[in-house]
Amino acid sequence: MTNFLAVERAVRTAAPHNLLETVRAALVQHYAAVDVDLLMADYSLTVLQPVTELPYTAEPLSVQSSPEGRAFGSQEPLGRFVSREGVVNLHLPVTVRGDRLGILSVRIPKERCTSDTVEDLTEIAELLGHEIVVAERDTDVYLQARRASRLTLAAEMQWQLLPGRACSRKEYAIGAQLEPAYAIHGDNFDWATTSETLTLSVTNGMGEGIQASLLTTLAVNALRNARRAGIGIADQACLADQALYAQHRGTEYVSTLLLSFDLATGDAEVVDAGSPQLWRQRDKIVERVPFEAQLPLGMFEETEYVAQKFDVAPGDRLVFVSDGVYGAAAKAGETYGAKKLARAIQAAALLPAAAVPRAILQELAAYLDADADDDALVVCLDWFGRDVRS
Description:
- The protein has 390 residues and is an alpha+beta fold.
- The chain has 11 helices and 17 strands.
- Helix 1 (2-12) packs antiparallel against helix 2.
- It is globular, with a radius of gyration of 22 Å.
């Protein structure tokens, strides 16, 4: 415990840009570590990028075929003994409330690699994740390390607008992903939770490039502004609609699916203002859940929105997709949502929520025999519910 507290103190007081060097020095001193590396998951979730000095990072590692990638996928510590060197290579998930940031790799002498040490290092990796999230307010080091290639300006704006790529608490787990990760422009997702509610939105701004990103940025911030005023989702949609119409006079608009969940009961309200779709997997049945279609935000002046009732049950998996997913068509002309989407959701049934969006988007890319040209968004919400006895 003394060693853990010493490392914790060092990490919490480290300069934002110097977290890796600080944790490396502390682990060498207190746990006899031979080497320490930090790898960040890239925007497409396909590789782990070592944090090194600019202008270049070291060689990236595959999420699919490396020990580090297996630890990232399983979210469990992974160790491998190297007999020739007498050390154990430990790969520890760097994760913050379900949001998978990367891997902390620690090489440690075999005789020091006890179960208590692995437990300590696992907690240190989680602590490091929290400190990285805070540090990103003041340094670009970790954001730069995530880039396997350069982001477009529109994509830069969209990724900065997001709350994260996953989150979890006892009532639910959420995972989300956007593609093309380095050139996304109009699709977006957002969520916020209180002690009793979860609000989630999926948006799709019309157009391409910077214009689509600017439009979505206005819509998401208008929805956030209304939500933070403490009003219901129907009025949130109304106020965001007014903000968009005032700016663009109906020439540009945003499709939005907006939901609010009661964490205690699973009762939900929904405003369907456009093209994003919801699919539900309950037991072994996957089906689309249709709602009453209302006008996209910003299309007409002072549109009134009405919330519909909807309920979720423990064990339900909800998958939200943009038109770039369900409407994508292969050369034969059949859209992905017509037959393939339900199968892709079923094929991902055993994966955790954080891994489902990437799996579905990979299936989509295989169906199209190429990466998506249009924005493609997938959000997965696993509903666990609340034990009324607790």
